[in-house]
Amino acid sequence: MGKRILTIIGARPQFIKASAVSRELQKIGDELIVHTGQHYDDNMSRIFFDELKIPRPDYNLGIGSGGHGAQTGAMLAAIEDVLQKERPDRVLVYGDTNSTLAGALAAAKLHIPVAHVEAGLRSFNRHMPEEINRVVTDHLSDILFCPSQTAINNLAAEGITRGVHLVGDVMYEALMHAVAIAKRQSDILERMDLHDGGYILATVHRAENTDQPDRLKKIIEALYEISQTHTVVFPVHPRTRNKLKELPDALASAINSTLSMIEPVGYLDMVRLESGAKMIMTDSGGIQKEAYWLNVPCVTLREETEWVETVEQGWNVLVGTDHDRILAGMAARTKPDGFIDDYNGKGSVSRLVQAL
Ligand code: UD1
Ligand code: UDP
Question: Which bound ligand lies closest to the C-alpha atom of 302?
Fold first, then answer.
C-alpha cells in the first residue's frame, strides 16, 4: 500500500470502529492517529484504547466539549495544523460526529483526499446533528466506504457515484473480536449478579432525546415502569447523566432505586452485557447493529433509523418516545426466525484497507 493514512477519531463509537481497521493498517502501512478529544473521560476514551489495544494517538488535540460551532471550529483549526505538518496521502474519518465533519472539512480544504467509513447512511431527519455531519462529510469525500446497498442508493440519489465502495460494516469485526475476548475476560454479569437472558439492557444518549426534557421524561418513565417487572441495566452516557439531574425529584429517586444505573462501561463489558441481554432498548446507532449481529431483539427509542435492514428483518422495532408505544414494542418483541447479515461484516476490514 505504502500510503500515509491519517485517521481522525474523537468519540466512543469511533474508537471501536477504528480499532478493527487500525489493527490491519498497522500491519501494512503507515498510520497516524489523531484524537480530537471530543470524548475525554477515562470510561469514554482511555478504556477503549487500553482494552482494544489501539495504538496511542500521535496527536491528542484536547478539544473537549462545547456547542456545535465552538467544538467543530476548534477541531477544524487544530486538525488543519496537524495536516499541514504531516501532509498525509489520505485522511480517514468515521461515522457522523463533529470530529468526522471537522476532519473531512480540514482535509478537503487542503486538497487531501478524504475517505469516509459509514458513508451513505441517512435518517432523512435534518434535526439530528449527525445527519448534517453525514451529508456534508459524504459530499466532501473522495473515497466512500458503504456498509450496505441502501447506503450506496442514498449516495446515488444525491449524485455521488464516484469513489463509492461497498465494503460492508467494519463494526462487525470489532464486535466479533471483542466477543471472543469478553467471554474470557469480562466478569460484569457476576459483578452485577446478573444471568444470561435475565435482564434488559438500555442506553439513551441522542441529543434529540436527552435535550428535550419532555422526551427524556417519557423514556425514563417507560423504563421505570418496565423496571417494576424486569431487571433493567442502564449504563448512563455523561450527556444523559447531566440531563437526568433536571428530572422531577420524585422520578429521579424512583429510577435510582429500581433501575441498575451504572457508569459507561468498557467495550468488553458492554458486549458481554449485550450478548447476555434478553432485549436491548436504545437510541444508539452502533448498539442497534450490535443487537442485530448478536441476535438480541432490539427496541429503538427513535422515530427513524439509518439501519433500516435491522427493522426489515424483524430484529429491531422503532417506537419513538411515546410511553405506550415503548411498552407495546417491548411486549411484542420476539426473535424472528432467520438472520442474514445485510451489512456483510465478515471481511469488511480487509476490503476497506485494500480500497484505501
Ligand atoms: C457524540 C456524537 C454522537 C454520537 C456520540 C457517541 C456529535 C454531534 N455527536 O454525542 O453522534 O452518537 O458522541 O457517544 O458529535 N461529556 C462528558 N465526558 C466526555 C464526553 C462528553 O462529560 O468524555 C458530556 C459533556 O457534558 C458534553 C456532553 O457529554 O457536553 C455531550 O458530548 P458530545 O461529545 O458533545 O456529544 P455526545 O452526546 O457524546
Ligand atoms: N458502548 C460501550 N459502553 C457503553 C455504551 C456503549 O462500549 O457504556 C459501545 C457500544 O457497544 C457501541 C458503541 O459504544 O459499540 C456505541 O456508542 P454510542 O451509543 O455512544 O454512539 P452511536 O453508535 O449512537 O454513535
Answer: 2
